[in-house]
Amino acid sequence: MEIDNHKTRVDRHSRVRHNIHCTPNFQPSLKPFMRPTTALKMSYKRIYFIRHGQSEANAAKDRTGNPNDSLSVRDAKLTELGQAQASCWNTPNALTQVYDNEPPEIVICSPLRRAMETASLAFQNTEIPIVCSRYPRERWWKHYQCIGSEHEETINFANTLSKSIGKLEELTTTDQFWNPELELKEIMLDRDENNVSKSGLYDPSEREAIAQGMEATKEFLKARPETVIAVACHWGVINALTDVSPNNCDIVATDLDIETGEILVLQTFEPPGDVEKSI
Fold first, then answer.
1. Taking 80 as the threshold, does the pLDDT of residue 98 lie above it?
2. CA 164, chain centre distance (Å)
3. pTM for the complete prediction?
4. Which residue, among 223, 195, 256, 213, has the nearest Cα to 68 in the 3D structure?
5. What is the rounded CA–CA span in Å between residue 92 and residue 22?
6. How far apart are CA 54 and CA 76, in angstroms?
7. What is the dihedral of CA 230, 234, 240, 244, to 10 degrees?
8. What is the rounded average pLDDT for all residues in the chain?
């Protein structure tokens, strides 16, 4: 995908960013219907959900109006626009305007490549560590774009990123939440000769329905030792947990009640600057 010189282009191998069109010290746009953030209460955790930047599959859908879900977009990566969107959060004061006096102690990212790269670009000049977890992976496991790469490919990709990601070795253990090769076989069995799902792309597979991944994600966050957490993940995850429909690289600030499991949406922030928006 080609974008003009006012957008960012990131060379994954050299890790050099060019022509970022994100104004320094520009405050992120606040979507007006949300509640203002407040001091964190004792029984709550502050969770900042950040949706990944535009992916290859998102870009194809934007052009055609229909999902582009073929083997070519398995574990879809960011486009150049997606890299620009994520990099805007790395401009001076952008993230601090979001979390004010409640900065994340850790960033947890989905093991899908678009989420890992978003986390590494957005938080690359912070001292906040990034770790990978299978729990906030995208829903809809019958989509090629929503299943992971082979483990070696995931590691090789992570090694090209601008900030290191921990806990990737844990992905070698498969379970009901993470089993890319089994899911690949299930997708192929579900498609007809025209690559159309026989059972409906947006209906969960039997394994996904049993896994109850969104409840597991919430329990995982409740059990973490940190009080303030950023989660780099996906539209389906954020929408399921918060009922918010974020655009690419929006940040949704929430409070998670660790006693009841209720998630209270506080604010949604768009990427700062005049980078092109996408869904």
1. yes
2. 16
3. 0.87
4. 195
5. 10
6. 10
7. 80
8. 87
